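User: Could you check the structure of this?
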Amino acid sequence: MIDAVLFDLDGTLADTAVDLGAVLNRLRTEAGQMPLPAATVRPHVSKGVRGMLGIGFSIAPGDDGYAELHQRFLAYYGESPCVATTLFDGIAELLDRLEAQGIKWGVVTNKTSRYTLPVVEALGLARRAACIVSGDSSPRPKPAPDPLLLASAIAGTDAARCLYVGDDLRDMQAARAAGMGAIAAAWGYLGDELPLEEWGADTILESPASLVGLLQ
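Assistant: Sure, the predicted structure tokens are below.
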């Protein structure tokens, strides 16, 4: 019996790639570089700022100039975190179905609360979610189990009675470590690391609607 379904935010519940890509291209333009096409940026969104700066500037934490670019990226994103961001097709209907069946749902993301909460508010989800856990809500972010365990506690259920749905390898690792069902969202960003089939997910879903059938 499943009591709650927890979702990653970027690439699972919400398509944030346009807004995040706009910030990256703003930085590239300021550096005299051409904007990157959406198709190039999209697979790296679930890796957060680290992934975005990696694809945009071939730079990594610890490299010269990374800290300054990281700070500017977050400052720009904070100005407009939810302009073009929308729920993925089928997510609104899925959340309605979960609520109708008495199944709680929540958000667990590595995005810090400063950026998570405005996005969730703008999408009209904040008052409906049983929990909203951000990257700074627990001592360790995903792939550690800490944020998922915190989310299940806030939602008032056992981790073993939760599913976690995400579009990144770290999401599956976190779900496994927390003792939750690990559901891979094939509609998400997916990254460029291991193929989706090698993430160790319990199930790979092609669309949000597929989750309803799984619960039944």
